[in-house]
Design a protein that fits this description.
The protein is an alpha+beta fold. 37% of the residues lie in helices and 19% in strands. Helix 2 packs across helix 19 and helix 22 runs antiparallel to helix 23. It binds zinc ion (2 copies).
Length: 838
């Protein structure tokens, strides 16, 4: 037998060429899809979150796309037309920062990175429809990003206002709240974030808070991702109440979930970021102290600041506000336990009924007034000393006391409603729902992003760029260094333009868009990627959207996934889409770690996909990364594990090659032997078991156990190979190839072709034979002269004659029978066969 050597470096390019030459993974938008709207079920849209092209693809990309590709292949072989595109989230800071360091234009470094991604993805054999490839930095793409921005602008969903913004002093740009980590550092560069007041563009995502919350129930996403979104939206019911600072004549609305405790408010606290803090302190004795405190507080993390256990700090502002319910003037403080993100950035403090307010009042010697009396305690000894009130702070329900004759004695929940009604009548407040979600700050004072298509005309004011003048192309500039304004401001020729309304002089908006805008709609563009007349045709969306299976990292649970949902809903409201949710099902894959920690250059524990593929091939890399553990969990990389998977693929391929040779010319169908017995039966049953198992595992993303099932099948084939008919081996190994194809497409294609002459990806997904799944196999004891010499698997329907034959073939029986005469054969079906020999 010739030497069969498994060489992925020969096998893999060969199949990749076939797929490229034949455009195997491309799908068309079928003509007349309109007429068959509603037949989406035959189509499937499988999508991984688009990568950010920086340098080379990393191991996380390999994992995401190994998962997605397995799903895409499985769906195809279930008979669906599968859209499986990819592209690049090409704008953003890393390319720009690289440009600042090296002077290389971000377009150049991004294009190089994209080329590298494209090469590597092809070398991994990922089944992408490359005809739909896009990059968000291409004018043919961002033209439509700008169009969407203008659609939102016209609908009042994009607006400009001055705001306290998080500013990264190192990157010299504004950051979204979501881009600041829990310790108050810039997510990108790690610098401590500052607060500045600047005119900024916002998208009104808060208008969609209720729908973003409610519609979570309609999608199949992991529960922890939904919970993260719910917490981020942070809905709470209560009231907005206005406290007035009479000295300065300013109204301060606060949001409270407990308007029933209004009469217990004894002081008022503002967040250090509140834009009015310095204005209030100005000219007071404590002005410098306030300034120092604010600067200090801004460098603390929200997490620290929100910690209820932490000793409370703050500074008196030297001002007071009037409590609208009782006219009391209560002192104002600035304190870091109040967060700007919550409500209005100011609170009424009710120390008797709130833990943190209580701690602050104790620390600062402020009055504490009980206004809710809970029911008498049931605890033993609670009645001692007579009418002992509960300890403060008391946060439970009860009846109002020390409030106002109209409300005292009322149950607090009832009083809550009554007080809100009273506030409403007095014009001092109203019922309100508060969301933690803020409007999305989308302007960036940076170069490498989609230009915001707005002009400023002296006469006409803010003017949207007319649609026929899109895209507003990003001009080339010499200096990318940020100077507190967008580097684009220096491109005078570009900035100065004419107003489309009056023909007068106008200036372009020089801020660019947050890259999360680019990625909030790219999944729509894939459906109609080369359309140069519109962002998409309705018919194309009807054919593919919404995405059936979305795959990506849990780190996008809030930002990208929230923004994409918001865009979908807003575009649906504007009549551009007819669905409400972009991603029906979501799978979040776990991280790949090395030596127990996240891979990073600084730790020197990075495993590059390119080097692994060069060493063992893409099939091994893909199979390993899916085999190492449940793909939704983190998994630690092990080179030994990689080698183990490589050996498995090698053994499988060699046995297939030998079997193909033994079988002679390949037969197109995998039939297996008729009426298998003995070892053949064992292996046929194992093959059907694997078919059943892998299908089920694929449906629940248990790729690791699916691959393990194919390993078990191979082990059974290897163990019994000398006793098997070639038809059995052909069936078992052909099935193994068929089942392994979603994970290791090259070697599987190769094996399947050797065994059948067919292309495995054109075959329907195999079905297990029900009859072969029944576990009516038993262990037949083989005796020679009454001594147990072997055991074999027998089917319960085997005839006594078959059982005798099975036993005669058992290796250890043969050893004791050969050269002797069998004088008697005792067959006890279901139990044993005994040969009496002489
Ligand atoms: Zn930064
Ligand atoms: Zn004008």
């Amino acid at each position: 037998m010739p030497d069969h050597r498994y060489d992925p470096h020969v096998i893999e390019p060969r199949w990749q060429e076939v797929w490229a030459r034949e455009h195997t993974w491309e799908v068309t938008n079928e003509a007349g899809a309109d007429a068959r709207a509603g037949q989406h079920g035959e189509n499937s849209y499988v999508l991984e979150m688009l990568p950010y092209p920086s340098g080379e693809p990393h191991i996380g990309h390999l994992k995401t796309y190994s998962v997605g590709d397995a799903i895409a292949h499985y769906h195809r072989r279930l008979g669906r037309r599968v859209l499986h595109p990819m592209g690049y989230d090409a704008f953003g800071l890393p390319a720009e920062n690289h440009a600042i360091r090296t002077g290389v234009h971000p377009r150049v470094s991004t294009a190089e990175s994209i080329a590298s991604f494209g090469r590597q993805f092809r070398s991994w054999g990922i089944s992408i429809d490359w005809s739909r490839e896009l990059a968000t930095d291409e004018p043919s793409y961002y033209r439509w990003t700008q169009w969407i921005f203008l659609e939102l602008f016209r609908a009042g969903l994009a607006y400009r206002k001055e705001a306290a913004v998080k500013w990264c002093p190192k990157d010299q740009t504004v950051l979204a709240n979501e881009q600041v980590d829990a310790e108050g550092h810039c997510e990108r560069c790690g610098a401590l974030v500052e607060v500045r007041q600047l005119e900024q563009w916002f998208l009104r995502i808060t208008d969609y808070a209720e729908r973003l919350l409610g519609d979570l129930d309609a999608i199949q996403w992991p529960e922890h991702v939904k919970t993260m979104q719910r917490n981020w939206i942070g809905r709470s019911e209560g009231a907005e109440v206005t406290f007035r600072c009479e000295e300065l004549g300013i109204d301060y609305p606060v949001f409270t979930t407990r308007p029933d405790t209004l009469f217990g408010a004894t002081f008022f606290v503002m967040a250090p970021e509140h834009p009015d803090v310095m204005r209030l302190a100005q000219g007071t004795a404590g002005e410098q102290q306030v300034r120092d405190y604010v600067n200090h507080a801004l460098n603390e993390s929200n997490e620290e600041r929100g910690n209820a256990e932490r000793p409370k700090t703050g500074v008196a502002l030297g001002r007071s506000v009037r409590n609208p319910v009782n006219g009391e003037r209560i002192p104002m403080y600035v304190a870091d336990y109040v967060l700007m993100e919550y409500g209005t950035g100011a609170i009424m403090a009710v120390p008797a009924h709130d833990e943190r307010d209580h701690a602050f009042a104790v620390a600062f010697g402020l009055p504490i007034r009980r206004v809710i009396q809970g029911p008498p305690s049931q605890a033993p000894g609670a009645q001692e000393g007579g009418e002992q009130a509960q300890e403060l702070p008391y946060t439970g329900d009860g009846v109002l006391v020390n409030s106002h004759p109209d409300f005292d004695g009322m149950a607090n929940r009832e009083a809550l409603t009554a007080i809100v009604r009273w506030l409403d009548r007095e014009g001092a407040g109203h019922a309100s729902v508060n969301y933690r979600l803020r409007d999305w700050l989308v302007s960036r004072q940076r170069y490498w992003g989609t230009p915001i298509p707005i002009l400023y005309c002296e006469r006409c004011g803010m003017v949207p760029v007319p649609e026929d003048q899109l895209p507003v192309e990003l001009p080339d500039i010499d200096d990318y260094t940020p100077k507190g304004r967008s580097p684009l401001a220096a491109a005078e020729d570009w900035v100065n333009t004419t107003c489309p309304d009056c023909g007068g002089a106008a200036r372009r908006e020089t801020d660019t868009m947050d890259t999360f805008v680019d990625s909030s709609w790219y999944f729509l563009r894939y459906c109609d990627a080369s359309n140069d007349r519109a962002a998409w045709r309705a018919s194309a969306l009807r054919e593919w959207m919404p995405v059936d299976q979305y795959i990506g990292g849990v780190e996008h649970a809030i930002l990208h996934l929230m923004y994409a949902r918001f865009f979908t809903k807003a575009l649906a409201d504007l009549g551009h889409l007819d669905f409400q949710e972009p991603f029906m099902a979501l799978f979040t894959q776990g991280m790949v770690t090395k030596d127990g920690s996240k891979m990073s250059k600084s730790k020197g524990n990075v495993v590059s996909p390119a080097s692994i593929v060069a060493r063992v091939g893409a099939d091994t890399a893909r199979c390993y990364i899916l085999f190492v553990g449940p793909p939704d969990q983190d998994a630690d990389w092990s080179d030994e594990g990689v080698d183990g998977v490589h050996r498995f693929l090698g053994r499988l391929w060699r046995l297939a090659a030998e079997t193909a040779e033994r079988a002679g010319s390949p037969a197109p169908e995998l039939l297996g032997p008729e009426n298998p017995q003995g070892a053949d039966l064992v292996v046929m049953r194992k093959a059907h078991w694997a078919i059943e198992k892998v299908g089920g595992d694929l449906r629940r993303f248990a790729f690791n156990t699916a691959i393990a099932a194919v390993m078990e099948l191979l082990n059974e084939c290897s163990r019994l190979r000398d006793q098997l008919h070639v038809e059995t081996l052909r069936f078992a190994l052909g099935s193994a190839a068929s089942l392994l194809f979603p994970f290791a497409p090259h070697v599987s294609s190769d094996m399947y072709e050797m065994l059948t002459g067919q292309r495995v990806w054109e075959q329907p997904w195999p079905h297990a034979d029900e009859a072969m799944l029944e576990s009516d196999v038993y262990e037949l004891v083989c005796q020679v002269n009454g001594k147990v010499r072997d055991r074999v698997q027998a089917g319960s329907d085997a005839t006594p004659q078959m059982l005798g034959e099975l036993c005669r073939q058992a290796p250890n029986v043969r050893a004791h029978v050969d050269g002797k005469e069998i004088v008697k054969e005792i067959v006890v079906p279901g139990k044993l066969v005994n040969f009496v020999v002489r």
